Amino acid sequence: QKEVEQNSGPLSVPEGAIASLNCTYSDRGSQSFFWYRQYSGKSPELIMFIYSNGDKEDGRFTAQLNKASQYVSLLIRDSQPSDSATYLCAVKRGGGSNYKLTFGKGTLLTVNP
Amino acid sequence: EAQVTQNPRYLITVTGKKLTVTCSQNMNHEYMSWYRQDPGLGLRQIYYSMNVEVTDKGDVPEGYKVSRKEKRNFPLILESPSPNQTSLYFCASSSWVGGYTFGSGTRLTVV
């Protein structure tokens, strides 16, 4: 079983719609969850992190975490063409393994004008 | 400005010629790590360091070496590069509680 799984996409949404990106993870000891955005040929950029069950909102972005279901998601409201990128889910176990950030392979999002 | 600086950004080399990719961070982060990114395989951790003189293997360490003599620097060394090490490489650093901040990347081609 892959440690962090994401639908590779592409996920295509019209401008102004809500984009929903999903991620599941296999390690129940995971404690920290991150969403990165990566434009083609560029480095990953941290956009959200969440540690506790529930929702966390930051501007147009909302991260949702359900540890019981081992599921984390990212919602992007009022999607813009500039949001077109690959979104990477990353999971950190914490404690003695705090160094290890394991990434999913990413979901390619395309926002159509 | 808080950042992770990698050099060079692009590098073409020949099989077997030793090379070093430098990485430096100015955020006083404890953790540093090297990742490689390949199409269809995603980001894979090569080596990581939890502090000065403390390094360990990640998921794909074969063919690579690292050192952490100073907190801010974490160079990646390819003693004898091979074509299968052609990839996009990222250095990253993190504090105890945060996610990694990534450098701009080094695109390496080994011919």
Q: Which SSEs are present, and which pair or pack?
A:
The complex is a heterodimer of chains A (113) and B (111).
Chain A: E1 4-6, E2 11-14, E3 19-25, E4 32-38, E5 45-50, E6 54-58, E7 61-66, E8 71-76, E9 85-94, E10 97-103, E11 107-112
Parallel strand pairs in A: 2-11
Antiparallel strand pairs in A: 1-3, 3-8, 4-5, 4-9, 6-7, 7-8, 9-10, 9-11
Chain B: E1 4-7, E2 10-13, E3 19-25, E4 31-38, E5 42-51, E6 54-57, E7 65-66, E8 76-78, E9 87-94, E10 101-102, E11 106-110
Parallel strand pairs in B: 2-11
Antiparallel strand pairs in B: 1-3, 3-8, 4-5, 4-9, 5-6, 7-8, 9-10, 9-11
Q: Please, could you describe this protein's structure?
A:
The complex is a heterodimer of chains A (113) and B (111). Chain A is 0% helix and 59% strand. Chain A has strands spanning 4-6, 11-14, 19-25, 32-38, 45-50, 54-58, 61-66, 71-76, 85-94, 97-103, 107-112. In chain A, strands 2, 4, 5, 9, 10 and 11 form a six-stranded mixed β-sheet that branches. Chain A has a five-stranded antiparallel β-sheet with strand order 1-3-8-7-6, with no helix packed on it. The model of chain A has no long low-confidence stretch (mean pLDDT 92). Chain B is an all-beta fold and 111 residues long.
List keywords for this structure.
heterodimer, A: 113 residues, mainly beta, six-stranded mixed sheet, five-stranded antiparallel sheet, 11 strands, 59% strand, globular, B: 111 residues, seven-stranded mixed sheet, four-stranded antiparallel sheet, 51% strand
Quickly give the structural class of chain A. mainly beta
Question: How helical, in percent, are the residues of chain B?
Answer: under 10%
* Dominant shape of chain A: globular
The assigned structural class of chain B equals mainly beta
- Summarize the biggest pleated sheet of chain B: 7 strands, mixed
Strand content of chain A: over 45%
Global geometry of chain B: globular
Oligomer: heterodimer
Tell me, rounded to a whole number, the average pLDDT of chain B: 94
User: On the 0-100 scale, what is the average pLDDT of chain A?
Assistant: 92
Q: End-to-end span of chain B in angstroms? A: 36 Å
Computed Rg of chain B: 13 Å
Radius of gyration of chain A: 14 Å
What is the β-strand count of chain A? 11
